[in-house]
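Hi Prof. W.,

I finally got the Transcription regulator prediction working! I wasn't sure whether to trim anything, so I left the full sequence exactly as given:
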Amino acid sequence: MNEDMEFFNRFSHMYLHGFKNLSDMFAEPATEHGITLDEFYILYDIAEAKGKIRLMDIAESHGVTRSAISRLIGRLLRKDYLIPRS
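And this is what came out:
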């Protein structure tokens, strides 16, 4: 049992440390432009759609609620990364 706990502790430490480093590495380009990684992925989805895309489509692809995407899009609008259609 002690070996199992030692393995678990070592695995957890490596996973958390590695995940943090990867997360920081992927987030760096976005943070240089004052946006979060989540906001970057939304911009990417919108650009890839090459036309109309619904909030629900983005929410489903990210596994979050429509209101969560709406809040992120609101932040992107305030930062002038998106322009609302008139």
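The chain is about 75% helix and 0% strand. Does that look reasonable to you?

Thanks,
D.
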